[in-house]
Design goal:
Layout (H helix, E strand, L loop, with lengths): L32 H6 L2 H23 L8 H13 L3 H32 L1 H14 L8 H8 L3 H25 L3 H9 L4 H12 L1 H26 L8 H10 L3 H29 L9
Helix pairs in contact: 3-12, 4-5, 4-7, 4-10, 4-11, 6-7, 7-10, 8-9, 10-11, 10-12, 11-12
């Protein structure tokens, strides 16, 4: 016996009438005062700095040993007095002059080495070999040799600064060049770019985020090397820098002045990182759309 299946039910038509946008209610809510303030990066960092300063002050007061750990207020007083009534400002200028000289020379050497590496296979092998040999070598370990080669002068400190800057900048720059997409490389080749024009117009703009990172790392390494070299080496050409200022005040047990010297290095680092490098980043990688 056969049965006849029931016919499938027809699905009813569903028609939605358009809804006016005015019926949606509030789709955009203004930010509160706290949300607007918290979205400002400079204010967030300032709040963190204030928190660190308060923590420093409370810990030093609880320790109650100014020879071991002075308070933040005592350090600030020594910092201001050293800038306007002492020789801290002169020491800072001396260190900055030596630092900028060594830093610039290191960047130039890194640029030459990287350009040679990116334009030839032998240059790539040379860069990889040299970085594997000298990058793990602490710059301060070369100071005795620098004193023999360049004597008791600025040249010895500049030499070890160049060593500390060269490999960090060269490695990051070369890594950035290698990460450039083949599409950009072919565009440059199709326009007939070769040699230095190809590097300047294609590779450097595309790899600039990595180059900027290398410059930041090189700056930090240069500061470390300079202060360490001045602590060991002392006065350069009759004018000591911040490292010598720290060393002298340590011997005289002027611990707030020691912290003031360290505080000066920190302040200069904050200014360079948040003003100089931030401006360079805003006018290059952010404007070019390489970073959000």
């Amino acid at each position: 016996m056969s049965t006849i299946a029931d016919p499938p039910l027809a699905r009813p038509e569903i028609v939605h009438e358009p809804i006016a946008s005015s019926a949606f209610g509030i789709v955009e809510k203004p930010l509160s005062t706290w949300e607007r303030i918290s979205n400002i990066g400079a204010l967030r960092k300032f709040a963190l700095l204030v928190t660190l300063a308060v923590t420093w002050e409370l810990y030093a007061r609880s320790l109650a040993n100014p020879l071991l750990f002075p308070t933040f207020s005592a350090t600030v007083i020594a910092f201001v007095q050293g800038l306007f009534g002492g020789d801290l400002f002169t020491k800072a200028l001396t260190s900055l002059r030596v630092l900028l000289l060594g830093y610039s020379a290191g960047i130039v050497c890194a640029a030459i080495l990287t350009i040679v590496a990116i334009t030839s296979r032998v240059g790539t092998d040379l860069l990889e070999l040299l970085t594997s040999m000298f990058n793990p070598l602490p710059a301060i370990a070369l100071l005795p040799l620098a004193l023999i080669w360049f004597g008791l002068g600025m040249g010895s400190i500049v030499f070890v600064i160049v060593h500390s800057v060269l490999w960090a900048v060269a490695l990051n720059t070369h890594s950035g060049f290698l990460s450039v997409s083949n599409t950009l490389r072919m565009v440059g080749r199709n326009y007939g770019l070769r040699g230095l024009p190809y590097v300047a117009r294609i590779l450097i703009p595309a790899a600039f985020p990595s180059i900027l990172t290398g410059l930041k790392i090189g700056w930090a390494f240069a500061w470390r090397t300079l202060i360490a070299a001045e602590l060991v080496f002392g006065v350069s050409s009759g004018a000591g820098g911040l490292g010598w200022f720290i060393y002298e005040n340590k011997n005289q047990l002027e611990i707030p002045n020691v912290f003031a010297g360290l505080f000066t290095v920190i302040v200069i680092g904050l200014i360079v990182e948040n003003v100089v490098f931030r401006v360079v980043e805003a006018r290059t990688v952010r404007r070019w759309g390489l970073q959000s």
